[in-house]
Each structure stands twice: as structure tokens, then as C-alpha cells.
Amino acid sequence: MTKRIKMKPGTRLSEQPENIGMNRWHPDIPAITHVKPGEDIILETLDFLDCQIANNDDPSDVRDIDLTRAHPLTGPIYIDGAEPGDLLVVDILDIGTITPYGFSGIFAKENGGGFLAEYFPNAAKAIWDFHGIYTSSRHIPGVRFAGLTHPGLIGTMPSIDMVHEWNRREAPLAAEGKAKPPYEPTAYVGALKGAERDRVAKEACRTVPPREHGGNTDIKNISIGTRIYFPVFTKGAGFAMGDLHFSQGDGEIAFCGAIEMDGYTHLGFDLIKGGMAKYKLKQPIFVPGPTDPKFEKWLMFEGICVEDGKQYYLDATVAYRRACMNAIEYLQNFGYTGEQAYMLLTAAPVEGRIGGIVDIPNCACTVAIPTGIFDQDILPRK
Amino acid sequence: MTKRIKMKPGTRLSEQPENIGMNRWHPDIPAITHVKPGEDIILETLDFLDCQIANNDDPSDVRDIDLTRAHPLTGPIYIDGAEPGDLLVVDILDIGTITPYGFSGIFAKENGGGFLAEYFPNAAKAIWDFHGIYTSSRHIPGVRFAGLTHPGLIGTMPSIDMVHEWNRREAPLAAEGKAKPPYEPTAYVGALKGAERDRVAKEACRTVPPREHGGNTDIKNISIGTRIYFPVFTKGAGFAMGDLHFSQGDGEIAFCGAIEMDGYTHLGFDLIKGGMAKYKLKQPIFVPGPTDPKFEKWLMFEGICVEDGKQYYLDATVAYRRACMNAIEYLQNFGYTGEQAYMLLTAAPVEGRIGGIVDIPNCACTVAIPTGIFDQDILPRK
Amino acid sequence: MTKRIKMKPGTRLSEQPENIGMNRWHPDIPAITHVKPGEDIILETLDFLDCQIANNDDPSDVRDIDLTRAHPLTGPIYIDGAEPGDLLVVDILDIGTITPYGFSGIFAKENGGGFLAEYFPNAAKAIWDFHGIYTSSRHIPGVRFAGLTHPGLIGTMPSIDMVHEWNRREAPLAAEGKAKPPYEPTAYVGALKGAERDRVAKEACRTVPPREHGGNTDIKNISIGTRIYFPVFTKGAGFAMGDLHFSQGDGEIAFCGAIEMDGYTHLGFDLIKGGMAKYKLKQPIFVPGPTDPKFEKWLMFEGICVEDGKQYYLDATVAYRRACMNAIEYLQNFGYTGEQAYMLLTAAPVEGRIGGIVDIPNCACTVAIPTGIFDQDILPRK
Amino acid sequence: MTKRIKMKPGTRLSEQPENIGMNRWHPDIPAITHVKPGEDIILETLDFLDCQIANNDDPSDVRDIDLTRAHPLTGPIYIDGAEPGDLLVVDILDIGTITPYGFSGIFAKENGGGFLAEYFPNAAKAIWDFHGIYTSSRHIPGVRFAGLTHPGLIGTMPSIDMVHEWNRREAPLAAEGKAKPPYEPTAYVGALKGAERDRVAKEACRTVPPREHGGNTDIKNISIGTRIYFPVFTKGAGFAMGDLHFSQGDGEIAFCGAIEMDGYTHLGFDLIKGGMAKYKLKQPIFVPGPTDPKFEKWLMFEGICVEDGKQYYLDATVAYRRACMNAIEYLQNFGYTGEQAYMLLTAAPVEGRIGGIVDIPNCACTVAIPTGIFDQDILPRK
Asked: Whole-prediction pTM value?
């Protein structure tokens, strides 16, 4: 019988009946369980906002969110025999829902923000109902699609040196308000208590950026059937994950977010001893599974490196923002508000591609939407 | 019988037996032919470097390239009845090779450069032989794949106001050497002669960046079966194209380039009168064809927004560069040099995706390579 | 909370702690539960041989099988409001394993037989271990693939007139030993008792052939995400299902069978009132889900209508048998026995297609195997 | 420059300006050209009815067809060095149209017939216009799809012993009118003249059935990018092909036929010396190309082994006929006549699969239609 780490739905991480996780990264956080190479485990995880969002039509919970509680993770899992320098082979055997709905949203510009916060400064929310592999939303009518379910956040534990290095290199941005430094009050660091808890809570890294251990990768294609090779930086590897997405568009542009949900993930583990040196790997690599939903027709928008009349140099961020804005403006021809289109791009299986990045002075990016997700024809007609 | 605009292979644009094109954008360049909505045409096009690259093992031609001759285009084509404000519907009915090989390469850092010029400053070249839809290269052994053939450069003619605006907005970057201002000596502006030729040659826009009319889009998915909706900015639309790619990776990261080739493209045209306003379109949109080669397994690399120990803010360009460097370093485990891996990433059907772009302070991008293109196993093993 | 009908793994249908089903079709079998249109249910089902096959290396259980116990089904489910003439819309929301292995096998020619019984008269067995969506077998080494999990048997309840008609039309074949007439001793007809049980058990139809209500369709593509429109022949519809397959090749040629397993299926129901007449439907129609595993390369074998030197006329059965035999003979070049190859064809996601069926005097069929399921190269080489 | 065998469009094989082929199989037919292993060739081919069908709305040409002229083939091609026992490796590098339209049709029951001749006894015709990879027909409105272009007929030359064997084994069926014996008057056997021509014309095999050398395989998936391994039975291999299909449904059920066209095929050749014994191959095997058009949603019909109230035993032909009739009846809900639906099934990229073939007494087959080819919704709605 496969071991299963259970959570209580709707209950924030720090108030769970049993300790199941953490919302920071630090190697001194004790493992919640251990598995042997070759063994499986099922991990239940809370939604990425720690149960702060309700199934209703009022976005004030999104507007007033406490983001310092973001990313409750289940873990760390200690893998017997894992040592620094190994590769941890993780198979995503299955992912499933527990609560039969999820949410996507737009954070307010002053609290959370997002890729298009300049254009959409107000909080918004869409609830998505799940029906097997399909989802639809009463807040974005006329759209239905199969999800490419995946964990937004998955990784191994950094060494203490990495913790220090991450905090160091992020400090300049944090000083500008563009990154999040350690924050003790809402840090939940597992079973630690007292002074030890406080020490770790003050030092532990926040969860937002993806880093060399994986972390908040937000790669929509690492769905069921995926194999990941993670570097091991600490004894036992310290695997943890959370932030399940029922579906996500490339870039998860609204930050809040994909279609966010609680759920469970069935995982298998193996080790390649000494694999980091053998394959010169310093970051995880991924072999996505073979079962992503098929789509036959896409509508693709391009963005170029020009914004407000200014030409940018080799700036894929500007180019992707323009591609997204072009898509959002176009979708308004078909009865959607800008906010709805924005929440759709962040949630549906849209492809965001780098195109012509090296073209000088410009670069281009594209965003493509499968036309079959709409119940109306969205192509131009005479 | 479909009309066919023929070029003489191996002969630079300005010395073609008949005038077939241009290498700049300007609305005063006369059309080479006209077609009616509903009609087809076949356009032969030269390779994007205007016949300067030889099928041999010596990269000195790449090193010494005259880039001001880049992008010989076939056109403009005058579409009867097209007026500013319309949408020009372009169907890519077929694309084929003429010369049975193509090239990819690395420009020298001092002449052309590319996305990874800091890491690969020296010129290199790979010749690719075509065998139907498949290609392989004696310079990158052990790799074979089906191409997703497409035009790198395709668009409609800008208005004269747009020409002025483009030159204006690119001037600051041009002053830094990051963009290319108009350059009269090698401008080829079709059938114009004398003073009129000189006036237009001095004013006409260079071809490198993608702009609001399409242009150098370098989108690998606009292959056979694609439909494009272009804005029309001038009477007759002034359609032109060139820069055929047998295959390309997202981003065409080496700039020189994809698998570059001469060839022909069979095109169909139609008009949606007044379509720009009807659909609020200021840039082309694309519906890619349904026949891209299937791949079942991909190896995906992630790049994060950290370079040389510095954390960048929301910078997809840095993230994609790191993803590419991670892939290049990994492929060296399997017998490839860095240059070979770089030329492979720019040429093979790799997917470059925006992942988690809005994550703050960081963002991530991914690059994924289909494993089936290699004749060896490239996954980590125990 | 979705209702779940639970079975006890490893316990034959007639000895389950609670009545959950039946192994015959008859409208007088009482419903085990009811659901409303729009509601979901989860049904657990036993393997198609009613727990007679053990996870070991000895095929004597296959050889000595009691086939009259075949096809324990979970059901019937009464759908509120369903009446004859309606269409019952069934969504396959999810399918999962319970016991982490399954089996495929070859029945002995004298007991069960199969498509190639003349060539493989002896019983054989392969146990398949499940690891998420992938499976492999110690009995057929060097093969691993993702399953296209589906129910082999799914349908609505026939009317009493249909029961009589089915028994009537199958009687001539039954007299020749080519079909199975009603058989009272092992009939399990749900909660019925005493004389009523005996009456129904003597009359109820066997489960092997697919019929107008669906039944033993063995269509490998009706996997997760599939929608089926079933005719309703009785009040309440009487939906039932079983015979889950982890994976199956088209034709399920060995009869015993696909990769057979117990497991659960999450189902949704809806009604189209009067839909049979509205759409002139007398049999179910199917819209397969979008997530079947991708394969990029297939090796395809053809069979023609010639066997033992005799030319057959328009006989797809002969043609498909030759295609299968050609495949089996070929696979023996790579270290497999004929029995292993046969069990692989019945179990792996092979495509069996009708090709040129109307060619006179001949027809052809093909069977295609994805090459990526093997850990060796199976294409001819110089 | 690749050698190209040219035909004159619209001119029957026997009146071509130069001899390019044959419409029978016999090893004494002289090769029209030779190629070396590693070389390519382009073969132009006539349509399968030898230019007897006109682009108009009158099916009388289909009704009055002279079928003894069927299957004009281009060839034989002599491959240098090929000897009996080798495998001839044939790469389908490209296929293209010459005349921009094709046809599908229904033969009259008394002249040609077809799979459903009992139900559709009268001749009918549909003309299909080609627009790049897409086709549509004024005779079957509201349908448009990308073709999976392929040769219906492709093979190597039989030995004289095989010719005798084929004639022998087909004679009993020919006596019943179910097969076609040699027929001298319209036999075209290449450059042979006089008595030698007459001798070969009387002996040469007709082209309809697929046989051990390939021949009239009608496999829709052997499109661009396909590699075929053919047995070599005669010195030089004697490769020939024809009967190009722009698109075809599995089974090509109307016999007349797929979407029939003239066109060209670019081919590459190689040899595996002694490959027949090495791989125990007596028939060709196929590796289909990777670029078949994607479809995301299919509507699937099932046929069971019951016709006119009679239960058949293990008869895939009956089952497939019922599946096709079910599809045809259903499509009539959406404005199509039975004849139109029949001509659509034979022409569109429908999948005809063997399902549950071994189920005793029954078997089932399915036919699936991609829903995206219609400009209306063809699923049942409330």
C-alpha cells in the first residue's frame, strides 16, 4: 500500500492536524517522512494561497491576500541514500484533484501585481469547476478545455550555502521591492519549535523564484508521466512540492495564477549516484509525459520589442507582454472583457514561445491559443 | 497554370537576370507583379545571405559576411483591390527546396553576433543535406530530423509614415550599434533607377527586426498549411517574402540562423475588406498548419534569471539564454562541441517556451529538444 | 462527495461483501444504486476473469479458466428520468488502478481460444506491473509504454425483447460452439434470489459479443475524457461496466486479453431526451478523449487475403490475421518468442486498421506498432 | 538534378508521347529507366482510371468506366545491384499534385461495385478542388480538410513463378466474377511489341489486389516521409507505382475511390543486401512519416457482426460495413445524402479500426471521423 501524506482541505498549513510541510526553503527543516529509492509516495498539497480564496464571485479575497503565506509545500521527503552530487529521479505517476474546483485571478497592482499589472490594476477572480479532465468557469463563459495538470512548485532542498547565496543575490532586488527577502512572522518551517524555529524562519528562502533546485518552475508540461532529474544538494535530498495547477498557460502571466487547486500527486523516486558530475548538471532537467491534450488549430499572436513607441533591444519580456496584450485585445472582439481574456491566457493551455529572440535590435515572442476551447468561431471572417 | 516568379540559384539578388525583389522595405518600391484575390502565385526566393555561403567545410564565408546584403526578398506583389485597412489573407500552400542543401552557422562576435556571442565568439558553419522532409549534416553527426519548413521573413509593405516612424524609433539603438539604420550602398530596391533609386535606398528600412507588418518574424510554426491575416498599410498591400528555413529552433538563437535555404513558396491570397478595424488588428495573426512533425519525447532544460551570480528582474532574455546554455553544456556529454550544440539548437525543431515569466523577482524559460532526432540515447542513466 | 461503489479486491463477484453487480445482461436485474442526470459516480470493478488469475509465472490458471464467470460488471445504475428512446450521455472522467499489476495471456485452444489459436494452442501468461501511466512486464522484457486505459465493457441494459432477439440470433452459432448461450449455474444476476434469480439466470444474455447497447466493445480509444452517447432501452437506462484494460492493441487479439485489471472509473451522466429518434441512433457513438499517449514512429505490417495458398474474397478477418502473423514473425528477429509477440500485440497500443477493404478479390489490413516502446532498435539495418 | 519521368496530363497511358509505364504486373516488362542505390527519382503518374473521369457534375463517366484500363503505373524502375532476396528501401520524399483537382465516386453496382454497392447501386461522382494541402468539393458542401497524400499502389515486380501462382490462386474467384483474370486487350505492358507483347499481356497479373510485393496497398498513412522495405523478387527489383490519393479514409470503401489524382512522387532508393532472409520478410513493411494532419476530436461509430438479423461469426468485413452504414445514416442528420456521406467516408481522413475482433461469436469494427472537417457541429445536442 503506497504511503499517503494527507492534508485537511480548507485548513491553512500552520493549522493542519498534523505537520505536513513548510512554506520556505531551508535545509534544517526536518523531513516529514522518508522513502527508499524505488518506492512511491502520494503527497496531498494545499492550494498555493494557503486556503485564502473562496468559491464565490467576490474578488476581495484576492485583493486582500496575504502573500507571505504563499506556497504551502508538502515535504521535505527524505530519500534514503541520497547524497549531495547525486541525481534524484522523480516520476510524476499521477496527479488528481481533491476539491472539485480551482481559481485563477488577477492580483491588485499594489498587492501581488502580475505581468500586465499596468494594464489591469484591479483584483479579479475566476472560479473553475472540474469535470474529470475538463474545466469551465462561470466567470469566463463559452470556454471549456482539458487540463495539463502539473505542480507549479517542485524541488529539492538547497544546502545552507545556497540559502545564503540566494538571499544575497536577491537582496538588491528586494531592496527595490522586486523580490521578497526572508520574512519570519508567517514562515512555517515544519516541526521546528522555539528558538530553532525562529532562527530558521528568519533565514529560510522565500518560494517565489525558480532556482537551481527547481522550486517554483511553473512549467506547464511537467504533467502526468513526466520524469525529472533533480540535483541533490543535501543528505536525503529534501524533496518537496505544492502549488498544483489544473491547467496553465505558458508564463502563468497573471501570477494569481494558473488554475490553482489543492490535490494529490503520486510520485516515484530513484537515484543516479554521482549523477551531477557524470552529466555536469547543476539544475534539474525534465522529460515531459506523453499525454498532453491534443489540439489541432491554434490562433497565434506575435509581440515585438516596441512599447509606447520605444524600441527595446533584445527584450523577450517586452515582446511577450506585447504578444499577450495583442491576444487580449483581439479576444475582446468576441465578448470577453480584458480581465476575462487575461485570466484565460494565464489559465488555458496557451503556448508562449520565444521567436526570433536574437534578431537585432528586436526580438519577438508569440502566444498561441487553441481555437477548440471556445464554443464560438474566433477567426476573422469576411 | 499558376504564375511562378523564378530566380536563378546562386546569383545574388542585384544580379538576377530579371528583377524579382528587394532587400529593404519602402512603399515606393514598384510591384513586380500583381494577383487577384482568390489567385495563387509561386515565389522563388534566395537564401537570406544572398548567396554568400558555400557548401564546404570552411566558415570563413560566414566570418566575412556582408550583412548589409541580408534578406533578399521576392516581391512586392500587388494584390488587386487591397487598400489600407483591409486584412490580407495569405495561405501558405506549399514550400519546397530548390538547392538540395542549406546551412546554419555562428556569426563572429564582431560581425553579426548572436544570442550567445559572448560564449561562442568565432564563426562556424554547418551544411545540412536535404532528403525529402528530412535533413542531416556532416558537421553535426548523429542527428536527423524532419523539418518544419517556413519563411523567416514575410509581410506587407509599410506606409511611408511607418517607414519614418521605424527609422525614428530604431535610431537610438542604431547609434549604439544595436540596430541597423538605412544603408544606401547595398540597398536593392527593385526596378527603381537613378535618383529615385537613390532616394528610396537612403530611406528604406532594413529587414532585421519583425515589425507591425510581419517582416522577419522567424516563427517556426508558420509552415505549410498556415493562414496569416496581415494588415494592409498601402494600396495593393505590397506583399513580399524570403529567408526560407528548412527547420528552425524557437528563437533561431544563432542568428545565422535556422537551416537557411533558397526555395519556392506557393501562396494563395484573399482579402477581408475593412478587417483591421473590424477586428482591431494592428499586427498580423497566424493560424499554423496542422502537419508539423510529431515527436513523442522531449528533453527540457530550464533557465532562470541569474547570470554570473547576479539576479535579474523579470528578464526572459536572460532566462532563455541560461536555458540554452544549460542545454549546450549538457549535449557536450554526448560528444558534441559547444559550437555544434549551439548550431543544433538554432536549427532543430526545439521548443523555446516562456515559463513562469511573471514570477518575481525571477522568471524562467525552457528549451526542449526532441530526443528522437539523435541516434544515441541522451537521457541520464545509472 | 461523489458516491463510490466499492469492491473487495481479489474476491469473486458472487462473494463480494455487498452486491455490486452482475455477469449477464437482463432488464430484471435490480439496480444497485441510482444517480441523477448531472451527477457523478465512481464505480470499482473486478478484472474480467473474476479474480481467477494470480501474479505468478505459471499459466495453468489461464489454461484452466472458468470462462462462464467472465465479465463481472458493476451495475446496473439507474439514471433518474431515463426512458426508452433517450440518449444517455456518459463522460469517462477518470480511470485508475487499484491493484498495481494486471495480466494478459493466451487461452488454450480448447478452452477460450483466440484469434491465433491455430498457431498458438497453448496457454500462456504475462504479468504487467504498473508505474503510474507506464507498464512493463517481466515476461516480455525490453518493452515499456504508457497505457491508454479504458473499459472493455460498457453499456446500457437491453429490453426484454432485445434479450430474446439476441439469444435467438446467436443460437445457431452457439449450436456450433461459436457462441455462448445463457448458462444458469454461474450466472450472477445481482440481488435477485430464489425462483426469480433462477428464471433470470436462465434467460440472461452472456457478455462476450458487443451488441446494440455497447457491451463488450473493446475499443481502446474510449479512455479518460471520452464521451459516449448510449441508446436507452429500459426505464432508468441500466448502465453497467467492467473489464478495465490498462492498455490494449486494436482487436485485443489474444482474447485473454488486453492488460486486464481491476480498478475504478469516475463517470458523469446526462440525458438527451428523445435523442434516439432525433439523431436516428440505434447504437452508441463515441467521442474519444484527447489525451492518448503520443508516438512518433510506427512499424506497420500488412496482411492480405491469402492464407495457406488460398485467395479469400473481401475477408478482413483473414487479412488482419495475416497482418498480425507477419508482425509476430518479424518480432522474433529481436529475441521474442511467438507467444511473447502475440501477447504484446494484444496488450500494447498497436493500431489495427482496415486498409483497402473493398479491393476485389482481396482486401488488406494493417497492424502498426510504436517503435518507441522497445528498448532496442527494431527497424531493418544494413 | 534529379531525374524526372514526365507524363502528359489527360492522356491515357497507352497514348503517352513516351512509354512511361504499364497497367499489369509481369517480370518481362522492360524497365523504363534505372537508378543506383542512394539516388533519387521523380515519377509522374496518371490517375488510377487512366484519364477517363472529367471535372463536371455528370457521373456517367463513372458509370460507364472501362475498369480494365485501371491502374496505369509509372515504371518499372531498375535499381542497380538489386537481386532477389534483397530488401529495397524506398523513401517517399515528396508527393505533389499536377492537375489541381481530383475525384471520388461510387461505381455502379453492375460495373465496379464497392463495399456498400447493395445500398448504393447507382454511380455518383464528387470533384475535389485542391488548395495547397487542403481540399473541398462543390459536391459535398461544408467540408474541408488537409490531405494525407499517398500512393494507392506501390510495389516491386513479382517473379514469373509468383505471376503464375497469383493467377492460379485467384482463378476460382475470377470464375465467380469476384476477381479479375488476365485480360489481354487493354493490357499495356510498356515497350514490348508484337508477339512478345501479346504473350506478356495474356499472362500479366491484374493490379487490383494487394499482394506479397505491395501493389494496391491503399494504406493511407504511407505519406510523405514514409520509408518502405520491399522484398526484391527479380533482378533490378522492378519498382513501379501509381494511383495517387490526395486523401483517403481507411478502407477506401467506395473503391472509386479515395480522392484520385495525377501527380508526382519524389523517391529515394537504397538496398539491404540479403535482407529478406536476415529479417525473415516475405512482404513489405512500412514506417509511416511523421507529418499526418493533427485532429483533436473524432466521432466514432461502431459496427457489430449482425446484418439483417443474422449473427455472423468473427467477420470483420460485416462489422466494418455496419460501422460505415451507421456513420452514413448519422451524417444524414446534417443535410448530407447517403451518397455524399459514402463518398466522404471513402475520401476524408477517417480511421477504420479493428476492435474486439476475436470476441466470439462477434467482432466489432469502428470508423471515426474528425469533427473539425465540418463547418457545422455534428455532435448530438439537447
From this structure: 0.96
